[in-house]
Specification:
This protein is an alpha+beta fold. Helices cover 29% and strands 22% of the residues. The protein has three domains: 73 residues, Winged helix-like DNA-binding domain superfamily/Winged helix DNA-binding domain (Arc Repressor Mutant, subunit A, Orthogonal Bundle); 79 residues, SH3 type barrels (Roll), CATH 2.30.30; 47 residues, no CATH class. It contains eight helices and ten strands. Helix 1 packs across helix 3. 18% of the residues are buried.
């Protein structure tokens, strides 16, 4: 049937999204770009551009001198919803894997950089056993180093969920020693036994099952212009930001946002810079 672009086909829609993504972020896109990425001929690529211009008229302009399509200043996206992080990965040389796209990697690019924090992970075997225990509702014994209890010992628990605090993983678990729900940092798990069948937990984890709305605002001690800047930075409406979060994870939100904990107690120092 010739080189037509059928928008009902997944492959065709992927090509159209690529055209839009490149024009939106990079500002330019060529037929050869589409041919190289998707392994299609120039006739099919031309058909794709024609179809895209039908779907989003006025979004692209063709430059005869440069032999390329250029995204226009007033372009509105119709198909693609890629983020800045994804654009950095795709269109900046050796951009690595940026924040928001999974495990971060160093960029190796002069155009983009980001802080890569030390990797706070348990060993792969430990992570596997915790994951298995969560998935199947089993009990597991782990060799755990507690920063609060000043102890390193085997702890038996029944983990039922995994929680990402913004920089490390926790296992949300019923602690058989303390008879209470606690968060255990996976990075402090030195070893773990293979999970075993568990007795039913006596209590429901209400803090995990309950969602709360945490309302934030610029600190009143900030000057007016500073409050305006903070509200803009966090996309606040009427200088208020509402965050829906599990009650059990409010402490992580407080830490990530630089808030004073609800109990008012400052966190003890954990690290010191070597001068």
């Amino acid at each position: 049937m010739g080189n037509t672009t059928n928008t009902e086909q997944w492959a065709a829609m992927e090509r159209l999204r690529f055209i839009e993504r490149a024009a939106w972020w990079r500002g330019v896109v060529r037929r050869q770009d589409v041919s190289d990425v998707f392994g299609i001929g120039p006739a099919q690529a031309s058909s794709d551009f024609q179809k895209y211009l039908e779907l989003n008229p006025g979004s692209l302009a063709y430059s005869l001198n440069r032999k390329r399509y250029e995204g226009q200043p007033g372009m509105v996206r119709q198909l693609d919803s890629s983020t800045l992080e994804e654009a950095i990965t795709q269109f900046m040389d050796r951009a690595g894997r940026p924040p928001g796209t999974g495990r971060m990697e160093a960029p190796g690019s002069k155009q983009a950089d980001w802080l890569v924090l030390p990797d706070r992970r348990a060993g792969a075997a430990v992570e596997r056993r915790i994951f298995h225990a969560v998935l199947h509702g089993m009990a597991v014994e782990v060799l755990y180093a507690s920063a609060h209890g000043k102890s390193r010992k085997w702890r038996r628990m029944i983990p039922h969920a995994l929680a990402w605090s913004g920089h490390r993983w926790h296992a949300r678990a019923w602690c058989l020693e303390n008879q209470a729900y606690q968060d255990f940092v996976l990075g402090r798990m030195e070893d773990a036994a293979w999970p075993e069948a568990a007795e039913p937990v006596p209590l429901r984890d209400e803090a995990w099952d309950t969602f709360v709305i945490v309302e934030l605002r610029p600190h009143p001690e900030l000057e007016e212009e500073q409050q305006v800047a903070v509200a803009l930075e966090y996309g606040m409406e009427k200088r208020r930001l509402k965050v829906r979060v599990r009650q059990a994870m409010v402490q992580y939100l407080e830490t990530a946002m630089g808030l004073v904990p609800a109990d008012g107690k400052p966190l003890p120092p954990r690290l010191e810079r070597v001068r």
